[in-house]
């Protein structure tokens, strides 16, 4: 093989190597770009999921609060009714007591 041919082959090999390196860099850059896009999508979906989870938790908590509020109101109404009935019974006793005392005072 002549010196020119050897130099030509070396030059072709260098060109091929440069081409392969350029292609590898392109592939690497594309993979990095794709990975970044996928990471952004994962983060976006994670944010959506966390907002949904927070809303679900808030809704669940709100429902528990409403149930507890209804229970407290019902218990309060029952307590108020019981106290009113007890007060009415005491009023009747007080009226009876006052009548007895009044009659005693009048008869003295």
Key features?
108 residues; mainly alpha; 1 helix; 0% strand; rod-shaped
Question: Can you offer a commentary on this structure?
Answer:
With 108 residues, the chain is mainly alpha-helical. It contains 1 helix and no strands. The protein has one helix spanning 3-107. It is rod-shaped, with a radius of gyration of 46 Å. It starts with a helix and ends with a helix. The mean pLDDT is 91.
In short:
By secondary structure, the chain is mostly helical. It has one helix and no strands. The termini are far apart.
Q: What does the overall shape look like?
A: rod-shaped
Helical stretch tally = 1
Structural class: mainly alpha
- The radius of gyration over CA amounts to 46 Å
How helical, in percent, are the residues?
over 70%
Could you give the topology of this structure?
Layout lengths: L2 H105 L1
């Amino acid at each position: 093989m002549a010196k020119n041919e050897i130099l030509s082959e070396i030059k072709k090999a260098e060109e091929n190597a440069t081409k392969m390196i350029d292609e590898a860099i392109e592939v690497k850059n594309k993979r990095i770009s794709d990975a970044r896009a996928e990471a952004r999508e994962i983060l976006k979906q994670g944010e959506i999921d966390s907002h949904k989870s927070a809303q679900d938790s808030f809704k669940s908590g709100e429902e528990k609060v409403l149930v507890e509020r209804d229970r407290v109101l019902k218990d309060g109404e029952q307590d108020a009714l019981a106290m009113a009935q007890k007060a009415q019974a005491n009023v009747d006793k007080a009226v009876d007591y006052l009548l007895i005392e009044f009659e005693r005072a009048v008869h003295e």
